[in-house]
Specification:
The protein has about 200 residues and is mainly α. It has one domain. The protein has a three-stranded parallel sheet with strand order 1-2-3. The longest helix has 15 residues. The chain is globular, with a radius of gyration of 17 Å.
Length: about 200
């Protein structure tokens, strides 16, 4: 699902069990902040009422009920789904990833890991790689922790107890690993066609 089509894609994924994987490109968590950006402040109450009653496109809420594979494509130069065009930190794809991780791995997103995740989200791919190195993220060890959890508790989300017996360092490593796993950065604006390589690793 691309852009606003992320809503219809996630609605279908939520309601139809045969949807095994979802790719969301240049989409948002909730349309309300984007709608508010376009309107004068004096109309904020009216905008909120209208959106919530008649056009409540909440992609994050749909994803919260979906159990399948997910890949998010964030366009680092996106001028449409950023509340402040040109500012990567305001890209609503960041909030979508944060909400997804909080829903699927509730114990991992905490006061220790949240600032580091926020830092990861405001950087581009090269800087993200440096952050992974700084915190000694071992991808194989992270996969092993996740696989051991699934063997013991099953694969249904949320992984409610994942992290209960882990150190703060392991929490950070897992959050960064999962952020990299779920989100792909694409250095382009909102309408540039996606290259085929983006779809190569959807099941990894």
């Amino acid at each position: 699902g691309w852009s606003i089509g992320g809503y219809s894609t996630t609605w279908a994924a939520k309601h139809y069990n045969d949807v095994k994987a979802v790719v969301l490109d240049a989409t948002f968590d909730d349309i309300l902040p984007l709608a508010l950006r376009q309107m004068p402040d004096v109309l904020e109450p009216l905008v909120k009422l209208t959106i919530r009653c008649y056009a409540d496109l909440n992609v994050a809420a749909n994803l919260a009920e979906y159990q399948g594979l997910i890949k998010l494509v964030r366009r680092s130069q996106d001028e449409i789904i950023a509340t402040d065009p040109g500012d990567l930190a305001s890209n609503r794809g960041n909030m979508l990833l944060s909400k997804l991780l909080r829903r699927r791995y509730p114990l991992l997103i905490n006061a220790t890991t949240e600032p580091i995740l926020c830092n990861w989200l405001v950087t581009t791919a090269a800087e993200q790689a440096s952050l992974m190195e700084e915190f000694n993220v071992n991808r194989e060890e992270c996969r092993q922790i996740l696989n051991e959890y699934k063997e013991q508790y099953g694969s249904k989300y949320p992984y409610s107890s994942l992290g209960a017996q882990l150190t703060d360092e392991q929490h950070i490593q897992l959050v960064l690993y999962l952020a990299e796993h779920y989100m792909v950065d694409f250095a382009a604006n909102h309408v540039t066609p996606l290259p085929s390589r983006i779809f190569m690793n959807i099941t990894t």
